[in-house]
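Lab notebook, bench 4. The sequencing result for the construct came back, and we need a structural model before the next group meeting so we can plan mutations. Quick request posted to the team channel:

Model the 3D structure of this chain.
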Amino acid sequence: MKMNKFVSFLTFAFLMSASVLGLEKNYFKGENYEQPKREISIISSDSGYYPKAPTVFVGEQVRVFVTSTTNKPTCMIVKDQEFYVEAKQGEMSEGVLYFDKSGIHEFYCPASGHKGKIVVLEHPDRKKERIRRELASERKKKVKIWRPRDE
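Done. Here's the predicted structure in token form:
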């Protein structure tokens, strides 16, 4: 009888530990996105935008949150993109950007005269892969060596 209770206790303990480990395994697993996502917040004040130059990577879907600290009408317009968001005091406005090339993209507000830049970088892993492919595809050049002739 005692052996039967002991076996049932061990079985119960094993099942509980397996279920707990299973939950932890799924709980700590990160989400995989088809397209990387990033969120940035930009504040428009009397002195300009903050931050003036946020950084993102190529290929990321960037959700931009914009707010203002003044009663003056302000906005955010990104050159080279069809992006316009109004910034009102105490309210959060948002929009989505996507950059497929690295570089510096300017944003501004014509009403307040504020300017800023979004720095778009190539992801370091993709850059390493691109460099590795470029090196592997180089042609091997013949080295010309001058040698004196025996006469």
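The first strand starts at residue 37 and ends at 45.
Will bring this to the meeting.
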